[in-house]
């Protein structure tokens, strides 16, 4: 029944403003809902106006009879540049919901290895791969495996809980629990890792509790040393976990599971320095696994080593919940900006995560603060924004994705795209040397192609075997979409994470013109461009495809059938 | 400003190439309002980018068949060395950012040493390094010197 309502809501969104009457008991939601409706209305008005200007396209766009028309999500996603990562959990780990998440705007499916088992995650992986196999011209979903890491933490609490000596207090593996005498922990197997008689240390011993007994999902304790229990406190079992390595035994099992299934990314928990990244990358190289490593920046220890952690990695995730637990909460916005900027400087993707639409776990509409939070992340230049509990176990997963999609799209439409510093650096270097190196040429061509596309208001077509040129173009944040054609399936999936890039798999032929024609025909067929539209076509990158050494090429072409 | 800081650095350490220092630092997006500490970090960040560019160019060279096996082996070693140099410059940045200046300078020196080993690899192979590889080696050494000298200026 809820699914049917979601379907109805999605369909309605394409034709008229959404109506989400707020519960009477939550009057604040009415204000937030009104704000969201205004945003949605503006977006839909713009969409309808654009469609009206191309009446035939409008008619085709919503014709269910045509099997060749791509899904609305594919069209919608071609306009939204900031990618959406969705955590898959009990609320969404079915075929039906995976498809709906993809249609609503999911670009990356995140598997949280702190919960569930390999069997349940295998099911999700298989479903995502099945979806990708069925949608070769539209949306592509990458898979990110998120390790648990050595830390066990308690859950979020709205206010600190005072624990007194001798008091009974419980930890449960149920999610989202916060009562006077019970809070959640972030790890399902916690229930198996502790035994009666163990001493639980909170934040290294600032508080301690004696384990008295266990049920199927709860550890019952008695407070030994009391104190104030805040959100996301470290939990250790005395003598058992203090010396855990950064990658635990369970993590290695999960990593191997990821290798066996060919996931696209690892999000590595509680990274403190670059050493663990090198260790993991060395392992992946040893097993010939082409998987990118994204450290989660979430502990106080990681901040002093930020530059080297990101330099060693393939991107980063701003995991703000734990950052806020370990560092002054007022520092989190500044740290987010610093992490995003560092990644941007290094041309690496960055994901902003945690609490973005937290209220939508239980409520059908976001708070205005949450909407602003998404907008800030988009404006800062995040490649992706992430949903955790909202899609893993929330009541309104599809609504949450839709909100994120709508807000990101609206924010992007208002962003000015100045030329970024790296192009200036490259130009300066170029001016001082008569001979340009490949790196300098690629940067300059990326910059110039972006300026051309922005000026002429055309999308960009790039052909890439390694993905490097598509990544560079994404770095310059062109106004329009980057259609990255690649003959490598692996590269296609990886590019799903990068801002503004729509990856498309296509075999390259020896004839450049024939390949160009097929690419443009593919875009016409998928309704990404229309007959007569101009496109900016880029030939550049590490490997030479159809070009002589040192020859780079930017063309503006008209799309013809 | 980059100009005054580079001049002070050059006065303190004659290995500093003033023109190079100004051109590299002044075009960095963080330099306009940076103090001496900030410019030291800018220098380290330029080092990260320089080593990263070297890696990129070496990959481009390896994508085309090098003339002989010895040249290829040297290039592959250089890629590993510049990967490590990139990390060392990043660690130099982190060290300076933590105000652990000794660690920062040590890592900058390490980065320069790694870059020099690339030149050594070509020398042992009796092969002349490609122009772009030679350039990045020179620039890595220069920016490491700049980074160290500016770090020494921090009061």
TrEMBL record, chain A:
Q: Which family does it belong to?
A: Belongs to the pyruvate kinase family.
Q: Which GO terms describe its cellular component?
A: chloroplast stroma; cytoplasm
Q: Name one GO molecular function term.
A: magnesium ion binding
Q: Which organism is it from?
A: Zea mays (Maize)
**What InterPro entries does the annotation carry?**
Pyr_Knase (IPR001697), Pyrv/PenolPyrv_kinase-like_dom (IPR015813), Pyrv_kinase-like_dom_sf (IPR040442), Pyrv_Knase-like_insert_dom_sf (IPR011037), Pyrv_Knase_AS (IPR018209), Pyrv_Knase_brl (IPR015793), Pyrv_Knase_C (IPR015795), Pyrv_Knase_C_sf (IPR036918)
Q: Name one GO biological process term.
A: photosynthesis
**What protein name does the entry list?**
Pyruvate kinase
SUPFAM superfamilies cross-referenced by the UniProt entry: Phosphoenolpyruvate/pyruvate domain, PK beta-barrel domain-like, PK C-terminal domain-like
- UniProt-listed Enzyme Commission number(s): 2.7.1.40
Task: Give the enzyme's main class according to its UniProt record, as a single word.
Answer: transferase
A Pfam family this protein belongs to? Answer: PK
Listed under catalytic activity are: pyruvate + ATP = phosphoenolpyruvate + ADP + H(+)
